[in-house]
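Title: Prediction job returns without error message
Component: structure pipeline
Severity: low
Priority: P3
Assignee: unassigned

Description:
Job completed but the reporter wants confirmation the result is attached to the right record. Sequence as submitted:
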Amino acid sequence: MMGAPGGGPFAGPSATQSSASAGLPFAGVPSEMQDGASEILKKEPVHPDPVFSFHRLVHRSSRLNLRSLFENRRAAALWGLFLLAVETITALLGPVLTQQGIDNGVMRQDRASLYRAVTLFAAIIVLNAITSFLRQRWNGTLGENIMYDVRLELFSHFQRMGLDWYTSEKSGVLLSRMTSDVEALTLLVNEGFVNLVIQALTVSIVTAVLFSYNPLLAILLLALVLPPLVVMTLWFRSVSERGYSDVRDRIAGVLADLSENLAGVRVIAALNRRRQNAESHRNVVGAYLDANLYTARAGAIYGPSTEGIGIAAQAIVLLVGGWMVVDGSLQVGELTAFVLFVNTFFAPIQQMVQLYNTYQQGQSGLTKIGDILATPPSILESETAIPLRPIQGQIEFKSVTFAYGDGPDVLQDINLSINEGETFAFVGPTGAGKSTIAKLITRFYDPISGSVSIDGQDLRDVQIESLRTQLGVVPQEPFLFHGTIRDNVAFAKSDASEEELEEAIAHVGLRETVDQLTDGINTLVHERGVSLSAGERQLLALARAFISRPRVLVLDEATSSLDLRSEAQIENVLDGLLEGRTAILIAHRLATAMKADRIAVIDKGQIIELGSHDELIGLGGRYSEMFDTWSSHSESGGPQPTDSQSD
């Protein structure tokens, strides 16, 4: 097991051991052991190459809609519709059996016909209950499976999106897409869609039955009812569609504001902004309230209006049908069934009013989710991309120009070659483009023009996973996930053994610290690592990068936010981590840059100076000025300025 870098009892292994344990290229079997190694290899069994498959996440080519939700489960959906049809039909046989019982049993005083109608009625009730149970269970499972697919697809799309997309989207809005919008869609698929089909099927069947009883009375009913219903429905559809779209936007705003306030609660408390932020949030919630009240007012107009039309229709049917019974053109049982069916005709319409609200909310949520899924990632993997072979670490920039979005160029015509195994530092003022170079190496972004290559392979021509698995990245602000120290260190290599975990922790100098914790490596690290110091969080980030054995290590201002003691501890750790690797140091402090083999001074997106520390000092240029300023502050005991401060 590797020890911490440095001398004494914690002295590290030899260079050969370091190369082997760190995943560096094998230097070969010593000559005195060659014969023995050959004999051992002859006895080794022949193992076939492992067989595995990998399905790369592909961007959705079609627009997400209600129909596309059922594409992968058409057979299950058709069976659910069949059960739905049986349930609806059996529920509508009640008025028919009532008519048969009255006309053939009561009016003719035929007890056998009456008993037969009642027996069939009981059998239909049992069949309807069984079918309803099977339908609800089947369709409920189907709906949950569909939403499972949607959640996974949406989360997977979040994972494949580029960093530029996250800088333009609020985390609270994205959270609302995964929570409130998915929940609205769940309600639509599990309840709204099924009930909408039931009610639509009911209206269709009832209309056909009404015409079979008395076409004249059915035509009169529809002529009086349909025109006002159509007008009211078209109006409500237009109003509610606009209203529920606004509701989805407003709830996203509420969650975004809440997320931001929770993340910045320390700053809010420190600057005494609680009252002002509460007022601001009240305005955000008030806008959400207004959007809900708008849709509620529309429903309050539409619901009673359609209900009034239904009551008036029943009165008209009773009046006209009563005249027909008196005239002998309609039987009492037929009139009774007709009146019952009229009530059955309008009950679904009343239900559809409420279901339409559910539909609009779900459809609005579906639109919001669909907009995200239709957004293509900025970093796309080519269809012809090939796996990146094990890299040696030669990095080359050829005429690279880059800008964020429509902004000005951050990098301009960068030409640079970083040698295999070289420690290379970038220094310069804030905003000069240092971190952008690191993001291009890890292919978080692609250059507007020019190319970035590793070992002569353009990064746009290789599979992203094969690139990222060979890189180690340590950001300025290390992010630790809610879980144990073990989980966070093994994040880059989930199958890491116990020995590898212990080795990584020891190598970054955290062994003693971890041993002092109650649960050791299984100690819970709270969200964002708030239970650890800044230095401990950074050391854990280094251990996480180390355990994946990267050939190229990128440190993006990894020590700039630390105190001098923590910085010195991490600088000592870096001496061991950087050995034998290509290392990119985005240096905020010159003490870090001085460790590099070569240093590039970046200003206004261009390399203005390039060379070793001694060479740049000898030039007497920008770097020399920065170093002189840093040295004068060090000698005077004052704070050591950063390169950006000295520029």
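Comment from assignee: result matches the submitted record. The chain has two domains: 66-373, 407-589.
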